[in-house]
Design goal:
alpha+beta; 60s Ribosomal Protein L30, Chain: A; four-stranded mixed sheet; 4 strands; 41% helix; 27% strand
Length: 123
């Protein structure tokens, strides 16, 4: 089992969609947001010493400062950049069916927003 923390809040689905609509709907804002978060996550993962896994189940514990953002939006936007960061850090070869066995989400309110990720390797 591997565990690490990413300080947040991570972008939610609403932020991802809003960034895609910017600049005339051409997605330049989304590309910038995705690149920045993917690199940030990869750096945190590398600093935590997380090693490569072939296939895994993922547990996400999302911590928000309040209940303003819907849980489904928090997880949808955040998971996208998290998986991309894991690929960039070479923890995963890809974020497809062969590497991702599944995931579970839990949500709570706390003083330090972010997400705790637990990686459970599976055969």
């Amino acid at each position: 089992m591997l565990r690490f923390w990413i300080p947040g809040p991570l972008p939610g689905l609403n932020e991802v969609l809003a960034s895609a609509k910017g600049y005339g709907g051409r997605g330049f804002g989304y590309a910038k947001l995705k690149r920045q978060w993917t690199q940030t996550i990869a750096l945190h993962v590398l600093a935590a010493g997380i090693k490569h896994v072939d296939r895994a189940h993922f547990e996400f514990r999302w911590v928000e400062k309040d209940q303003r953002r819907d849980p489904d939006g928090v997880a949808a936007g955040g998971r996208k950049v998290l998986f991309d960061g894991l690929v960039l850090a070479k923890v995963l070869a890809n974020d497809g069916w062969k590497q991702v066995a599944g995931w579970t989400d839990s949500f709570e309110v706390g003083a330090k927003p972010g997400v705790e990720v637990t990686i459970i390797p599976v055969p």
